[in-house]
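Hi there, hope your week has been kind to you so far. Would you mind checking whether the tokens look sensible for this chain? I owe you a coffee for this, so here goes:
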Amino acid sequence: MSLAFSRQKGLVPWIFATMVVAVSSTVASAGTLPQPDGRVVLTVTGSITNTNDGGAAEFDMAMLESLPTITVETTTPWTEGVTKFEGVLVRDVLAQAGANGVLVNAVALNDYRFEIPVSDFNKYPVILAYKTDNKQLRIRDKGPLWIVYPLDGYEELRNEQTHSKMVWQLRRLVIQ
């Protein structure tokens, strides 16, 4: 009995130390988003904790490209055949900004906007594409950023509602 008690007693400080480290890491990272060096291509506002410009999180292309790159090969209503999209998971960008909302209002350069549930980004590998077929997206190619759902990988995503969520020429995400 004393052996089990000793193990439990030894476990409590370890759990507490782990919790302190986790809380300290969270607190230390709040508001510590680095400044963009290049042209800002994405601004995240709203319910976020990590900012680098007042209440906003601004990202240049280098900041986005420093996140893990994801490739999605899929057809879309706007491209010919299967297209290879490269970018970062939207959920990774939201994590960088410290987003804590349930809706994302995606806003394009032409002010087209669409509300997307955050749950979409947790359920599916939705990316902010910055390349198609190994070429950097330009404004004339629906860039510099395009929200891309893996339409070919999930039957339930092949519908007009999902197509409306695939905002191209993305410039801002507002977290609600």
User: Anything to note?
Assistant: The chain has two domains: 1-30, 31-175. Strands lie at 40-46, 57-60, 70-74, 83-89, 103-108, 113-117, 127-132, 135-136, 146-148, 170-175. The two ends are 52 Å apart (CA to CA).
